[in-house]
Amino acid sequence: MAGHGGNGTDRQDEATIRRILHVDMDAFYASIEQRDNPALKGRPVAVGRGAGRGVVAAASYEARAFGVRSALPSHMALERCPELVFVPPRFEVYRAVSAQIHAIFRRHTPVIQPLALDEAYLDVTEQWQDYGSATALAESIRGEIRQQTGLTASAGVSYNRFLAKLASGQRKPDGLFVIPPSQGAAFVADLPVEKFHGVGPATTRRMHGLGIHTGADLRTWTVPELKKYFGSSARFYHDIARGMDHRPVEANRPRKSLGTETTFAHDVAEWDRLATTLNEIVSRLAAGCVQRRIAGKTVTLKLRYAGFQTVTRARSAPFPIVEEAVLRQMALELLGSFFPLDRSVRLLGLTISSLVPYAEKTPPVQLRLFEP
């Protein structure tokens, strides 16, 4: 497998090593808007609602330079970048472009695991030799994407999913990065744990509290030691600290649920603050359902208290939920069922499950209005 930067070649004595690509489009939604409207090129662009309780669904790289990121409330995005241009999302266009990109993937390998409209894992273990190296194959895919869509993609090449995902973010936008087997463990050793895919903000804080700041720090812990603090995730953390990830690329893997969450900088107990944050979470989750053309029947609210105790409550609807207003109503009712709170909250999350493909004729769910 090629070295960092992709200038080497795969060696025949590495025939048993997997070749995994992670391809990630660069600022996908915003880049499409800039492509289709030349007046937006070079300007800070956010896809989403620019008024009320809207959130940023995607931001161009010009906007990211001001600290504008996806899931940021619109009013905060405008505070950070007063020149920010909001454009409404066009999910039908994004889906069409995504279909073009996935058709390109399928011409190179049948083993594809989509993560979203704009990214996927590809296992090219059986195909790389036709191109001379997995790196050359990745470059071919990036070139076809640029030629056929006018958009750029970044790619990571490695011997497992975890490292391929890390690699794709190293030279964004429009970059390629390779982590070969000989350098995987060393690459992870120098990396801050907050950069690890699969280690979220709450886990990062807990690791920092235990003195774990880098992959090298994490590597000093045994599985039993990690299990005391991280439960069933202990083995995963143990392995990735050593550059190991045995998860296969799962083609056509059915999604069982979709969720998102927010961890507060300071614990919160007030209804208004929690309800406002939950509204933002609902908007993100609803957008994710639209992007993936899915709807679900069961809504689950998760609260994690200051002492790390986690509780959940769920409610199911008679039909798949296709309207954001209904999802918001159910979420707020679930939140209301926890009140009055006897302690403050550090994390708030929402998941939708019992998923089905979205259909235009899916009957809308009519529920009573929420009363705080």
From TrEMBL:
Catalytic residues as annotated in Swiss-Prot or TrEMBL: 119
Signal peptide stretch: none
Keyword terms: Cytoplasm, DNA damage, DNA repair, DNA replication, DNA-binding, DNA-directed DNA polymerase, Magnesium, Metal-binding, Mutator protein, Nucleotidyltransferase, Transferase
InterPro entries: DNA/RNA_pol_sf (IPR043502), DNA_pol_Y-fam_lit_finger_sf (IPR036775), DNA_pol_Y-fam_little_finger (IPR017961), DNA_polymerase-Y (IPR050116), DNApol_IV (IPR022880), PolY_HhH_motif (IPR024728), Rev_trsase/Diguanyl_cyclase (IPR043128), UmuC (IPR001126)
Annotated EC: 2.7.7.7
Subunit structure: Monomer.
Protein name in the entry: DNA polymerase IV
Organism: Bombella dulcis
